[in-house]
Amino acid sequence: MSRRTTRSTALAAAATAAAGVLATPTPAVAEAVVYTSERASVRLTYGTDEPPSARESVRLDVPTGYVRDRRNPHKVTWHEPFTGGRAISVDLAPRNGTAADLRAQRDRTAATYGDSYRELAFDVDRSAGGMTARWAYSFTEPGTGDVDPFVSVVLTEGNRIEVVGRLAEREQVRAIRKHVVASARFVS
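Above: the chain's sequence. Below: its structure in token form.
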């Protein structure tokens, strides 16, 4: 074989290998989530001067297959149907419905979990559309060695949306939180 043929063959092999690498599909990072529209409604008598007939409701998208659970008269949770799964909570009359209240809760959480508390984000946006606050954090439950939870809290329109999952799947939890918050429609 001539030197020219050997060189051409080597270049062709390298080009084919490079094309094969480039043509190889990359694995998907996010999982596909199918959503269903849900509605929750509460009476606004808890800690307010509202008449007993006053109501607040929300319509939002929740991943299909999540189980609904009313936690208290003002809070509804949807969660995966197994222990340790992701959960979405909506509190329509939160005690900590202001940025100052959320900061105080953040301080209490940091004091409770000490060195195992990791704050991943805390932002307050006071734009023309009202106040929105976002807080994301993780911690290790003392003495348990449990997988770190990833907690993402959003205050919007005076209501609280919280999405909880595992730290290892925080990208999926963020994607779910973004979709749920964007879909939420509150009615007083």
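The chain has one domain: 35-187.
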